[in-house]
Inverse folding.
C-alpha cells in the first residue's frame, strides 16, 4: 500500500518499535498480541481479511497434510467452493482425522459430539458423501470403514453423554451413505443412549433408502415405547439449538421451536417422500404438542406441507399430509 513503518504506527497507535519487530517477520501474525492486531485491523485496510484467510489456510494445509498421511485425499476445489463457512468445514476435517486415527478416547468422543447440530451435521455430511461435486474427500471409503470400526468402541470405556452423542453422529452419517449398518454398532440393552443411537440410524436409512415401511415401523415404536418418544421429542430442539443438550434427555416445560421450525421447513423440501412421511406422521405432531405456534411459523408450515404433499407420489404420505394440514388449519 506504500505505507512505511512510521505510517502504520501513526495510523494504528502502536509504538514504532512494536511495528519494527513485526515488519519483516513472515510469522508476524503468530507473534502479534491480540490488542495490537485489533489496532492494525481497525486502521490498515486488508489486515483483517488477511488475518482470517491466513489463519484458515494455515489450519487447512495442516489438516490436509495429516489426512493425506491417513490415506484420505481432500478435494481443495470442492472445499473452497462449499457454501458452508470454511471454519465449519475445517472442523469437519478435524473430526475425520479423529475418526481415521481410530483412537476411542474421551478427547475423540468430546470432539465428535460437537457435531450434534444442524450446521455441523451438514459440514460433516460433505465428508462422508461420495457424490461428485458435493463430497469433499476424493474417496471417502476409508472414512466409512474407520467409522464402522470406531463406533462400537466409543462407549466401552466411558458411557458418557459425549460418547452417546459421538456414536449417534457417526452411525447417522454412515447410515445416510450406506443405508445399512453392522448390528454390532448398536448399544446393548435398553436406555436413552440406545434409543438415541437407534434414532440416528433410522434417520440415516430413511434419508438414503426412502423406506416407507421403516418410517411406519418407527412411528409404531414411538406409539408403544414412551422412551423412544421422549428421545424423539428431545432430538430436534437440541439439534437445532432451541434447547440445551442434557444428559437426562429432557426439555424445559416452556420452549419455542424457532430454529427447529426453520430446520423442519428445510427438510420438508430437501428430503424424500419416506422422510416426509416420518415428519408428518411422527415428529410434527409431537412438535405441535410442545409448541402449538411452531416457533411462529405455523402458516409457513401449512403452506410447505400443501405444496410438498401435492407433489408426493405415495398415497399414504399424501393422505397423512392432507390430514395434518387440516388439523393445523384448525389451530391457525
Amino acid at each position: 500500500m506504500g505505507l512505511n513503518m512510521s505510517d502504520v504506527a501513526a495510523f494504528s497507535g502502536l509504538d514504532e518499535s512494536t511495528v519494527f519487530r513485526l515488519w519483516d517477520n513472515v510469522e508476524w501474525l503468530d507473534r502479534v498480541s491480540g490488542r495490537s492486531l485489533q489496532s492494525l485491523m481497525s486502521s490498515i485496510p486488508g489486515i483483517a481479511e488477511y488475518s482470517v484467510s491466513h489463519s484458515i489456510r494455515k489450519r487447512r494445509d495442516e489438516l490436509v497434510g495429516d489426512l493425506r498421511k491417513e490415506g484420505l485425499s481432500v478435494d481443495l476445489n470442492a472445499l473452497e467452493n462449499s457454501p458452508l463457512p470454511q471454519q465449519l468445514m475445517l472442523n469437519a476435517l478435524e473430526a475425520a482425522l479423529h475418526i481415521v486415527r481410530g483412537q476411542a478416547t474421551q478427547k475423540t468422543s468430546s470432539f465428535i459430539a460437537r457435531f450434534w447440530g444442524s450446521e455441523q451435521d451438514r459440514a460433516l455430511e460433505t465428508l462422508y458423501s461420495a457424490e461428485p461435486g458435493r463430497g469433499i474427500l476424493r474417496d471417502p471409503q476409508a472414512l466409512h470403514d474407520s467409522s464402522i470400526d470406531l463406533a462400537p468402541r466409543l462407549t466401552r470405556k466411558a458411557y458418557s453423554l459425549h460418547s452417546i452423542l459421538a456414536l449417534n453422529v457417526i452411525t447417522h452419517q454412515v447410515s445416510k451413505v450406506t443405508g445399512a449398518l453392522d448390528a454390532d454398532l448398536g448399544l446393548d440393552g435398553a436406555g436413552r443412549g440406545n434409543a438415541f443411537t437407534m434414532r440416528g440410524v433410522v434417520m440415516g436409512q430413511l434419508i438414503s433408502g426412502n423406506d416407507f415401511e421403516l418410517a411406519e415401523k418407527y412411528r409404531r415404536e414411538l406409539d408403544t415405547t414412551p422412551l423412544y418418544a421422549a428421545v424423539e421429542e428431545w432430538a430436534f430442539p437440541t439439534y437445532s439449538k432451541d434447547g440445551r443438550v442434557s444428559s437426562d434427555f429432557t426439555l424445559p416445560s416452556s420452549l419455542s421451536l424457532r430454529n427447529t421450525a426453520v430446520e423442519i421447513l428445510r427438510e420438508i423440501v430437501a428430503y424424500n417422500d419416506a422422510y416426509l412421511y416420518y415428519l408428518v406422521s411422527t415428529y410434527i405432531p409431537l412438535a405441535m404438542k410442545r409448541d402449538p405456534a411452531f416457533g411462529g411459523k405455523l402458516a409457513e408450515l401449512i403452506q410447505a406441507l400443501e405444496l410438498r404433499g401435492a407433489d408426493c407420489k405415495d398415497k399414504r404420505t399424501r393422505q397423512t399430509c392432507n390430514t395434518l394440514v387440516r388439523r393445523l388449519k384448525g389451530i391457525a
